[in-house]
Amino acid sequence: MEAILQVDKLTKQYPGFKLDHVSFSVPKGTIMGLIGENGAGKSTTIHAILDLINKDDGVVTFWGQELSSNPQNIKEDIGVVFDGINFYETLTPAKIENISMKAYKQWDKQIFSSYLKRFQLPSDKEVKTFSRGMKMKLSIAVALSHKPKLLILDEATSGLDPVMRDDILDVFLDFVQDENHAILMSSHITKDLEKIADYITFIHKGKVLFSKPKDELLYHYGIIRCGEAVFHQIDKSAILSYRKRDYQWDVLVADKENARHLYQNTVIDDASIDDIILLYVKGEQVK
Length: 287
Known about the structure:
Blueprint (H helix, E strand, L loop, with lengths): L2 E12 L2 E11 L3 E5 L6 H8 L7 E6 L2 E2 L4 H6 L1 E4 L11 H11 L5 H10 L13 H14 L4 E5 L7 H14 L6 E5 L3 H7 L2 E6 L2 E7 H7 L1 E5 L1 H6 L5 E7 L2 E6 L2 H7 L4 E4 L2 H10 L5
Parallel strand pairs: 3-8, 3-9, 6-7, 7-8
Antiparallel strand pairs: 1-2, 1-4, 4-5, 9-10, 11-13, 11-14, 12-13
Helix pairs in contact: 4-5
């Protein structure tokens, strides 16, 4: 599948932290979920992708071009929402629109108006009077109103109540129905990603542990719940990660059906994205 965004060996060194040769791609018509614990490197990755920080190594291309090769035109086609408001608190949505119309050639007043109405945002109230959720909805409305082809979202559903989050997720799903569009979405709310993502990239301590189709994770990964005797019988090459809790071992495997065939008297549960993150972060790998 043709990639809208291609990240290849992206590297950035800070004192005490290294984003280490991060690679993944976001195909057209898809949503890529970017996951990992706090401090894993998700926001650093997004900032480096957007040239907001200087990368030490690696190549990032949008539609086959580096951002520096044609920044004005490429930025027209990228909508960005960060975890936090990026507008002056004394501005109103109407004033933000006046500024945005000058910044984006593709700005569409009708689209912006429709999102203000849908999100129940007053056009004449100052941003400082908005709740956190309202500010996030405003950021999403602005990002969508210059008709981007790629959305890059850093915790974009943070601060929204469950009903509004569900509505926003529907907006994102509608956006990628045009198969020339795509989304890169960092989120701590893995249930949101389970609902809408096509692919999941997991960053841990600055490294990509995997970048896989979401369905492969949810339909094939599993957790063996067993005692010590069964744990020592498990083929160590099949163990992705494991964690000992009192007298029980939780063992993450990539093929739960094969595990159910091999260990028929053992409990083998489905694995959620949260389960997978927890076992990789809190668990151990076989030496």
